[in-house]
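Need residues for this backbone.
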């Protein structure tokens, strides 16, 4: 297992990935956990905190999102946060054990003026000796270069789902545009953070195709956030059937197997997961999570509960920070 678990491939066939999903649950989890142990300290979890630095009025039509101007969710539009509020939030996050601070803005793509403000935030958070990550929508190559020059460690831009199912969820931005942004980020030398959302009505094959797209990028993402859909009243996906928890855990396990050295992150939806489900996710290979009571506009478990769960499981916060390439 040790030799195979260190092999990083970018040529996964969909049939191979689907066959992993079809394994008996215990066999799949055994395989993913073995690979996880061979590549990481299996009793450590990297902790990040996410802050919305600009909320609401996004022109995109993402069917899951409370921030879309096309969805009537009652969310009020907010201006870009002042830097001192961002620094205060990052300082609190660091004191609570987070090593990475992520900042998200509800934009289709940032203007040059807005990007300059974000760069000041990145530099201020870096001065706290924290890793930095931003998610700002689509980027041009020169914008990615400016972010790299500011010291940015990670850029998040999720693929969300499979190319085949994508048009059922979003019509205002193409799948290729998402891939292009990831290429600009990668070419600028910034770590890529990219994953998807489960439970939007997609099939298991769609989940396999999403992981195939991520694993077959020229380089595996440094971080792979796996979100469980948070259903928000006023969005088109409100009221959809919930995903089977075991299917979510299977997806985490398959992500770990085919991207053995990536950080697989439990992201949105943890408030709907009990401790037992989260524990199985960690065993299956998840080794990153978001701390904090909010993830952009949705609830997240309180830090105190997460610390209690870590103590019960004997899990430690990872203290090693991953520098930008």
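Answer:
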């Amino acid at each position: 297992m040790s030799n195979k678990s260190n092999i990083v491939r970018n040529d996964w066939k969909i049939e191979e990935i689907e066959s992993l999903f079809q394994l008996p649950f215990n066999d799949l989890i055994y395989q993913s956990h073995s690979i996880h142990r061979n590549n990481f300290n299996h009793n450590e979890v990297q902790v990040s905190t996410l802050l919305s630095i600009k909320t609401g009025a996004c022109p995109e039509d993402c069917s899951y999102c409370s921030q879309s101007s096309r969805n009537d969710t009652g969310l009020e539009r907010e201006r870009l946060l002042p830097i001192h509020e961002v620094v205060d939030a990052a300082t609190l996050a660091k004191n609570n054990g987070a090593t990475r601070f992520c900042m998200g803005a509800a934009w289709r793509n940032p203007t040059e003026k807005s990007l300059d403000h974000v760069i000041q935030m990145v530099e201020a958070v870096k001065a706290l000796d924290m890793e930095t990550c931003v998610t700002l929508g689509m980027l041009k190559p020169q914008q990615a270069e400016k972010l790299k020059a500011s010291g940015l460690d990670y850029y998040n831009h999720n693929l969300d789902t499979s190319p085949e199912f994508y048009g059922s969820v979003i019509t205002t931005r193409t799948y290729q545009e998402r891939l292009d942004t990831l290429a600009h980020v990668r070419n600028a030398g910034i770590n890529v953070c990219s994953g998807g959302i489960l439970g939007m009505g997609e099939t298991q094959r769609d989940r396999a195709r999403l992981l195939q797209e991520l694993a077959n990028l020229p380089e595996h993402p440094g971080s792979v956030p796996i979100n469980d859909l948070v259903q928000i009243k006023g969005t088109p996906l409100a009221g959809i059937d919930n995903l089977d928890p075991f299917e979510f855990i299977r997806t985490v396990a398959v992500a770990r197997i085919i991207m053995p050295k990536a950080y697989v992150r439990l992201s949105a939806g943890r408030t709907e997961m009990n401790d037992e489900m989260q524990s199985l996710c960690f065993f299956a290979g998840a080794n990153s999570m978001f701390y904090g009571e909010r993830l952009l506009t949705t609830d997240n478990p309180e830090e105190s509960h997460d610390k209690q769960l870590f103590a019960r499981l004997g899990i430690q916060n990872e203290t090693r920070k991953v520098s930008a390439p």
